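thought: fold this chain, then report.
action: predict
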Amino acid sequence: MVHATMFKRVFALAALMMLAVPVIASAQPAQIVSAGCTVTPTTFEHNFWVRNNSLTRICNMRWTPMATGGCPIVTAAGPAGWSATVNVDGSADWSAATSTDCVATNTTTPGFSLGVSVSGSCCYFVDFMNASGVVLYSTTRCCDCGPISVEDQSWGKVKSKYQE
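observation:
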């Protein structure tokens, strides 16, 4: 009887652990947090923050367009202590100047941006790396900055469009 009770407890614990594994595995080690768009006459700038949930330090980052020729990055910028480089293949690299500029575990760093010359959705492969350039985590990210309408409209004209 003691063995049956112990078996049930072990079995119940094993079942709980199996249920917990997908929850733990689904947590992203790093995230891109959107901070909105800035639309200029020539670019659609995607502003974002980098959130480090569990990696040692994020000191480098690379964004590579998923579609060849679809959404090449034409401008890139980083916060103080970070440099950004746009590559000829349409990708971009960000690098921290010193280890204190890296995104430490459980912190978020604002002030990153990338610019593209096309409106609509652009999707990228994103690699988060340590100071040596070793990829710690890879994910994908899609950004969407559409054109903003600036037509001269009165409230009556806008209302009439919905009555048609």
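thought: worth noting. Residues 2-26, 148-155, 157-162 have pLDDT under 50 and may be disordered.
final: tokens above.
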